[in-house]
Amino acid sequence: MSGPTPPCFQRRIVRAAHYRNGGTWEFVLEAGRLVSRKRILAKSDLIFGPGFFDLQCNGYAGIDFAHPDTTPNQIVTAIKAMRKRGCTHVLPTLITAAPERLELLFRHLNQALHSNEDVRGSVLGYHLEGPFISPIDGARGAHPKEHVVPPSRVLWRRLQNAAQGNIRLVTLAPEIEGALPFIRQLRSEGIVVALGHTLAGCEQIAAAVKAGAVLSTHLGNGCPQQIHRHQNPIFAQLGQQNLSASLIADRIHLPAEVLSSFWRAKGPGQTILVTDAMAAADAPPGRYTLGDLIAEVGSDKVVRQSGTENLAGSALTMEAAVSNLMSAAGATLCQAWDAASLQPRKLMGNIKIPGHSFTIVRPTRRGLRIMATVLANRVVFCR
User: 189: exposed, middle or buried (C-beta count within 10 Å: 0-12, 13-18, 19+)?
Assistant: First the structure.
């Protein structure tokens, strides 16, 4: 005897208003597919828009991308789980580790993609955050100091070969020796370069932008608790007109007033929402790993390095980031949605995505409730 038909395979007719222009569309979902879509003259309390794209995700749903024991099947599970939060695309992110460890982790990611065509459609590349960052405490964050190194073309080639050319975004500190020529090399290879975990001053930031850096990684984080009130890497990056900024909008990494200030400085055209999520995202409170690091997560959803008050990633999800940018910074729904979808796509070179990929939400007083997620015409989540 067969069981009940899964929700994603039941025939559904869903009407939702476009997040930007308010026009209502009717979607027919059946057998796990988007069967048809058409514009109609009607109103709906549901809203739809492009699926969210997270440029920085270290793990999800109890699964740690940076742990050597994580299997390709677990990676597949984690990436699929993101879809119930409206996230259709992601750059799995690996932080500083020994070269041999990073090579192993990239092989695990590759195996996950090769084993599952469905997940391959969600992963648009990898984000390498480190090991070419500042070794100084505070700026280094949770990255292990023993594996922080200056840029090396030999090491870069090793890692990109292990990733089978899938590293699309690299975060580095521009003040370390060899950083500027390395930025130019990465840009010549079509790699997007971000600045982060840095103590660089204005001149060094400006030189990095001239060399080809285009993004600040989790601006306002990855820096010491105490810095010069004016001459510091946060203001140096905020003042750069050609730098977009990714923000962890969880009200923890950036308090509401800081998030609002950064939003006003960068504006809707240069703000990108990321989660910097680790295994605790969409998982219950408890102890989780971030590579060799042990993190503790309480009921407040704050991820702390075990035994300290240091943050070690987040438990944020993308639809919550959109809601937080609206409530804390005064962004409109359209602006916040763009910061989680169109802006990251634009930064990555408007990667061609086949078919229709979108998410349908129901706005509530508590935020956005994801009702359905469609990836390349396939219904990958629905209630």
Answer: exposed
In a 10 Å sphere around its CB, with 0-12 CB exposed, 13-18 middle and 19+ buried, how is residue 157 labelled? exposed
d(CA 171, CA 111): 24
How many structural domains does the chain have? 1
Residue 278: is its pLDDT beyond 90?
yes
Residue 32 lies in a domain: no
Cα–Cα distances (Å) from 197 to 148, 238, 240, 264, 340, in that order, read: 11, 15, 17, 23, 22
What are the residue ranges of helices labelled H in 277-378? 318-329, 333-340, 342-347
CATH number of the domain enclosing 206: 3.20.20.140
Domain that holds residue 136: 51-353
pLDDT of amino acid 6: 63
pTM across the whole model:
0.96
Residue 187 vs residue 10, higher pLDDT: 187
Q: Would you name the residues annotated as active-site residues?
A: 276
Establish if 137 belongs to a structural domain.
Answer: yes
